[in-house]
Amino acid sequence: MTFRTGCDAIWCRAFSLSLEGEALDWFNTLANNSIVNFKSLGEIFKKQFAACSMEEVMVVDLMNLKQGKEESLKSFMDRYQKIVRKVKGLSLELALQYVMPALRLGSFKDSICRNPPHTMEELRQRAADEARVENMKQNYRREQQEAKAEKNDNKKAEGSGSRPTGPKLREGPRGPRFPQYTPLNAPRTRILQEALSTQILPAPAKRPTPPGVDLSKRCLYHQNSGHDIEDCVTLKDKIEELIRMGRLQQYVKREDVRRHEELPRNEHPYSRFESPPRERRKEDRGHREYDRPPRDEGRRTTQRDRSRSWGGEQRGPLRGMINTISGGFAGGRPTSSARKRSIRALRSIHVVDVPWRTMPPITFSDEDFHAPDPDQDNPMVIDIEVARYRVSRVLVDQGSSVNILYWKTFLQMDILEDLVVPYDEQIVGFAGERVDTRGYIDLQTRLGTGRESEEMKVRFLLVEAHTSYNILLGRPCLNAFGAIVSTPHLTMKYPTRRGTICTVRSNQKMTRECYAAGLRIYPKEERRKISRSEVALADLDPRTNTEDRLEPVGETQPIMIGHNADQTTSIARGLPAEIEKELQSMLWKNRDLFAWTATDMPGIHPFVMTHKLSLYKDARPMSQKKRKMGDEKRRAIGDEVRKLKEANFIKEVTYTTWLANVVMVKKANGKWRMCTDYTDLNKACPKDSYPLPSIDALVDGASGHKMLSFLDAYSGYNQIPVYVPDREKTAFMTDKANYCYEVMSFGLKNVGATYQRLMDRVFAEQIGRCMDVYIDDMVVRSPDEGSHLCNLEEVFGQVRKYGMRLNPTKCTFGVAGGKFLGFMLTSRGIEANPDKCEAILKMPNPSALKDIQRLVGRLTALSRFIPKLAERARPIMKKMKKEVVSKWDLECEQAFAKVKEILMNPPVMNRPSKGAELQDTETRYRQVEKVAMALLHAARRLRPYFQSHQVVVRTNHPVSKVLRKPDLAGRMVGWAVELSEFGLRYEPRGSIKGQHLADFATELPIADDDQWNLYVDGASGKNMSGAGIVLEGPNGFLLEHSLLFKFKTSNNQAEYEALVAGLELAKDMGARRVVCRTDSQLVVGQMNGEFQVKEDHLSRYFHKASALIAEFEKIDIQHIPREQNSRADLLSKLSSGKDKGQLTTVIRQVLLQPSVECHSITTNATDWRGEIRELMKKQDDGKDLRPAETKKIARFLLIGDDMYRRGFSTPLLKCLSNEEA
């Protein structure tokens, strides 16, 4: 909003329009007459909100900079360089002086101390070298840890659970670990399958079969021979361990439940499961570890007595602990080795006397109840202060092991992102989902907003997620403050350093608003991680059809846009020197938008676009049978899978329900392309009817421009991630493993619609103005060179904003023309594709039906450039319509030669150009007057043609009626007189299509898919006879016909009557293709020529039905069982009824005599309209009429097949015959 005024009163009043929230509330509280002018208002505002101003980065911030304990050297150097650039007036000596104190102890700090750098470039180079060495060491340590962990897992899987007491090995089978086992209600084979599928029991390594064992017995658990799965001791022990941990409870036999309930209260139902002495000692030690009593003996005795008096209500062992959020800095740092050290420290901490933490007693009473609704189960949501910001909607979660500051909240605090310490570990939610973090930061935090509240430094993890809360406080923060939370009171209390108790209350209204808003948030999807991969994008392009791809016309030259010599793209040769220099500079500046390997593609964020399959609810998973492949194809599949894995496009999956085969396709260069057969999966997915752009409109819009740039993102399919729940449905099988796609794969249904939806969102402001996009083909167009550079810069900005990447080898910039969607675009207009023209010119004369169909298809592709193609190709069309193709005759040869003659020099099509603009008064004309004026201008410009030919004007506007009205006045009178000399003929406009394609479209042999279904049935009885007819048409049309015969008929005669009546009904409804079904096997056999017609009365019906069949384009008579013809059978017995939701019409008719005895009577009455039609036809053919004849037909006109008469002041009057009248 811009104000151009010098009045302070207006400035002061408009100032509030730029405020919101707390600032707007402050402005509304200003007293009347307290503002003198706008300058004083600005000073008051600055004083009020001085604390909210952005803090300037000072040298002190650089002095306090420290490298984190887990922070890599590369991340630290990035933060250091950002702060150095933001400190104003910082000298090089000071910048290099403060780097050594900020580094943690290590080899790089020693190197800086021994040999200080002299320039920032030297420091960056040495840091980069050290970072590479550090990364190599980390990778080596990680590989060693993974190898060691895998070795330990293999040892555990082999059953080495107990520690060996000596070098002597165990001989013979191992005995059971438990004296008694829980009875089961299912075989162990089924329990093993359940445990493996849910991954609660790891699969052991395959063991070799010992020598000298019974090979007839097979163990599915160890995958060897020698014993059955029911006799496997190891599996019995594993299942018993899982049951005692609370798992697999559905397989526990429940026969003794009532008997357990009848036991004494001091006897536990599971007391018969005695543990061995070692196990019992271990459990006792565990209780001493986790239930550590106080040092007060009296309190210990009381607690012991209380535990003993628990009686029959004693609970079994806990099944585990479920946290809301796990990970972070709780539990001994993020690494597995650090967590193990934390557990070992917990076991050894009881050996020494550790001083206990002391806290004053904190109590909650009835006075702490403050919620308006006492009957509540709301979470604890409070207000806190973080970094001198008051933050509301803070969730207190005692089940979270981390404190979370959401990224959207962090961005509102105006805190430098350089202060964020990188943190690469993930946090785990209660359902096992893993969420990425963006680092951590330590901020001063005050619980509550009152005077008694305390402030302390709290470490927050930064997480980017959609949530209704701003901050989540977990156990680390609560334990640091010593806070106690009471959810019934919705109150939290913690002791302060002054010895008082600070009380923080929750706002119940805000709590419920956050809870309701949180239910509407969808879960955050992970972005695809890209590892270092050298797989070229061209190797991952799944498309095989490249005929109509973007292709520039004219000479091009490569320019280098990368650090390597082979990293080039193409620009047009012969551009002006200044334009070429600016174009090269722009491409070099935006070189990061071009991808050379899969590493350079960050991928589209899932919040922007994901590909969802949206399967039908009743779709059943399909697993295809594995197909056999040759050695060459198997090696090619292995290479393709390796490339996809390196690019992180696929991942290995197990226990998938959808599984497809791979299909190898030979490329033009002889290499293999791996595709996936998603036939079954695509059938289970509905079609996405997202509208694709019109190719004709795109070509018309892109033509006629002076400069074009072609952009290609053919790996764009791989940049869009697949919706996480749908990824395993894209699984495919190989010889070694099964994999699924994490990115959108070529071959899936609706991938084109998904990509077009993305393009419409990314380039919403550019499409139609300076850019045209059809799925993954993009062209940037401009009328001149100067505006083209601006348009390219705008497009590059959108590409960078959404994280897209372009293929430099397929992009061409600044050309004058090129191929786009199969058409040749130049500054002159749209030209025919020379390759397609050459294909027709070199094509020999067709000799078979397929050759004719191929020729017609090629002509259709170039129909825009062949005038009157329908008329010229009519002889060829006649050959294609015949079922048996006759020889290529002279007429076809002449038509083919005329088409070739046109294609030798095809015309150039131009876009409609704007003509002279209307004057101000003409713009206010009515629409019909504008049409009449356009007709007048056309008659003046084309006067010779109007005078020598009969001109037909097709329009939907009533121009002819207006020009012939007797009460015309003004300019319309002059126009009517001027146009009257040409004898114009007006007709209504037909369907709005391209007029150059209208004739050709009418001649195309398009098959009519409108099939009609006819069901007939006849019934003959002693008292009455009848027939039933059901005719089903397209779009749910249903016609029911019931016939009642007043004459005696046999059953076969009734069936023929039904057939004849049904055919006549289908003929009257205009059906051309009919499938007739009847339950009379005699009628079907005689009509199909299988049975002979012997009876005379049936022969008459046969000939009449055959005559009716000859009037249809195609008719098929089939026999069906009576139960499938129930509706017609009911109608034949005069039953009635209709189904809801259908357009139904029931017709009842009574026949007094057989249909073969009825005779039609025709009259030869003359029609008075015939003479007028003949005269109008003569006039249309260009023949001269006498003045009397011209006067006679002057007021008549034909609209379709109907004749109308013009009135003087009335609408058109329809002319009727004597019979119609």
TrEMBL record:
Name this polypeptide is given: RNA-directed DNA polymerase
Name of a matching Pfam family: RVT_1
Highest taxon above the source species: Eukaryota
Keywords attached to this entry: DNA recombination, Endonuclease, Hydrolase, Nuclease, Nucleotidyltransferase, RNA-directed DNA polymerase, Transferase
CDD domains reported in the protein's UniProt record: retropepsin_like, RNase_HI_like, RT_LTR
Enzyme nomenclature, EC number: 2.7.7.49
MF terms (GO), sorted A to Z: nucleic acid binding; RNA-directed DNA polymerase activity; RNA-DNA hybrid ribonuclease activity
Recorded coiled-coil stretches: none
Recorded name of the encoding gene: LOC106779887
Domain named Reverse transcriptase: residues: 646-825
Region ranges (Disordered): 140-186, 259-340
Enzyme class of the recorded protein, top EC level: transferase
Keyword Cytoplasm annotated: no
Organism expressing this protein natively: Vigna radiata var. radiata (Mung bean)
Lineage, top ranks: Eukaryota, Viridiplantae, Streptophyta, Embryophyta, Tracheophyta
Biased composition (Basic and acidic residues): 140-158, 259-308
Any single GO BP term: DNA recombination
Domain RNase H type-1: residue ranges: 1008-1140
Listed InterPro entries: DNA/RNA_pol_sf, Peptidase_aspartic_dom_sf, Retrotrans_gag_dom, Rev_trsase/Diguanyl_cyclase, RNaseH-like_sf, RNaseH_domain, RNaseH_sf, RT_dom
